[in-house]
Amino acid sequence: xxxxxxxxxxxxxxxxxxxxxxxxxxxxxxxxxxxxxxxxxxxxxxxxxxxxxxxxxxxxxxxxxxxxxxxxxxxxxxxxxxxxxxxxxxxxxxxxxxxxxxxxxxxxxxxxxxxxxxxxxxxxxxxxxxxxxxxxxxxxxxxxxxxxxxxxxxxxxxxxxxxxxxxxxxxxxxxxxxxxxxxxxxxxxxxxxxxxxxxxxxxxxxxxxxxxxxxxxxxxxxxxxxxxxxxxxxxxxxxxxxxxxxxxxxxxxxxxxxxxxxxxxxxxxxxxxxxxxxxxxxxxxxxxxxxxxxxxxxxx
Length: 300
Ligand SMILES: *Cc1c(COP(=O)(O)O)cnc(C)c1O
Hints:
This is 1-aminocyclopropane-1-carboxylate deaminase. The protein is of the alpha/beta class.
C-alpha cells in the first residue's frame, strides 16, 4: 500500500489590530488541517518511519506516550489507514479517556506501564517484541526519519518569512524545519517555544539530529509551569484567540506557542515589516483533556 496522502496545509494570514500597530504580518501554516487524527507534525514524523517499516516487511508498530498523547492517537490512526497493527505503551496507571478510547477504536492494543518501566522503553520493547517483526517508534515520533519528514514542510511554502515559530516537545519538528532552512539556503530565523520546563536538553537533541543548535532560537519563558501545565492567563488567551479567529488551539502545544508569539510582538521583539510564520501543528484532541479547567474559567 502507498504510504502517503495528499497534504492540505494552507498558509493563511491572520489579522489583528496588534499586528498593524506593531507593523508585523503573521501567517499560520495549517498543519492542523492535514488529518483530524494523524495530526499535523505527527503525520510528518510518521511518514518515513512507516515507509521504512513497509520496506522491511514489518507490519506491527510499537510506540509510547502519555495518556493524552497526540502521537499515540496518530500512530493508531495511521496504522489502521495503512494496514499495520499497533501497540501503545501508556505511561502510568490504567485509566480511560477520550484519546485512549479513540486509540482503541483505531485498533491499537494499549499496555499501561509504571513510570519506571516506561523509562526503559527499548527494554520494554525487546522483552515483548521481536525487532524483525515490529517497529520501535520512540515517544512523540522522535527519530531521524521523523525529522526528515518535517523538512518537507519547507517544500510547501509559498513565500519567504523572516521568522518561523513552532512549539517543541522532543524538538524533532523544529530540527527538521531548521535542516530544511539550511538546505534551501534561506535566511529565515527558526524559533521555538518549548512546552517543557528546563528545555535546555533540546540543544543536545538538535546536535544528535545533525542540526547546529545555534540555528534555532529557544524561547524558554512560555512553558506555563511545564508539560501539560496551564495557568488561567493561558486559558483566557486561548478562549479569546479561538473566538476571534475561528482557529482552534489547545493548551499543551499550540496555545503556548501562539501566546508566546503575541507576547513577543507586544514586547517589540520583531523588527518593523517582519513576516512571521507560525506552524499550527494540530493535536487538537488534546483540548479534551482540559474541559474542566475551561469550564471552571467560565465561573470566574
Ligand atoms: C507532538 C507535538 C508537538 C511537538 O513536536 P516535537 O517534534 O516533539 O517537538 C508540537 N505540537 C503538537 C500539536 C504536537 O502534538
